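Methods — Computational structure assignment.
A single polypeptide chain was analysed. Its primary sequence is given first, followed by the predicted tertiary structure written as structure tokens.
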Amino acid sequence: MRNIIFIIPLLFSFALIAQNNELRCNVVVTAKMTGNENVQIFRTLETQLNEFINNTKWTDRIVYPHEQIECSMNIIVESYESDLFSASIQVSSSRPVFNSTYVSPLYNFNDRDFTFRYVEFQNLNFSKTQFQSNLISVLAFHVYIILGLDAETFESQSGQSYFEQARTIVAFSQQTNSNGWEPPAGGAQTRSALIDNILSPTYKEYRTVMYQYHRNGLDIMNSEPKKGKERIANTLNNFAIMNRRRPNSFILRVFFDAKSDEIKDIFSSGPNVEIVELLETLQNIAPMYAGKWRSITF
């Protein structure tokens, strides 16, 4: 009997571990721009969104605590009237680097077209196949982008199912005519354009770089810093091919919005490696960060 009593709590503890959510996300709602930042509805919204994101099981995977993805969503409410809110949302995520305390930024996206309806204490539920609300669709879309990008950095092409779910969310959300879901056109940087870029063969180097940069470069930096830097430099040079095919692409901006500071820091310290070709590539494909590239003098 004592053995049975011991086994039951042990099995229960394993069940609790297996039920972990995929994300460890900090959601912040800021309402200073409305002039009414202390209104209770904003605090309720923040609490509900934290519970929604962190308590929803987004995949069928068994997730252990060390596998949870660190991310954040900062919702800046610009105005509201009754139950209609106009806002923007800054979404970011990171992943740990092997044998290190360092975490590497993967996603840093400022989604400016974010309008939604919300009534205090309303139920927040997500369906993989059906539109619930623009609030839910926008958050879920970014969740699946986060899941997909994280997976891609550990195993090549392993984020496909998450990206396809993000595309499904785009498809049923477009039918509502809500802002930010419009089909890619004229260089618009919408959610639709983002997932179209990620899944398009035209930009296939993006996913290749995400894997090679992190798994074959960053993850060996602690034990073999010079080799890690050389691999990262060679990997980034692959973007030159993509840029020749489609110059100044949206997906390149998304990449460098997350990685520009990290790249600058990597090549500004540590063992010397040849970076003449890399610097030329960076200047050509990401001129908006020219000041950072010029500061790499190591």
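Note: The mean pLDDT is 92.
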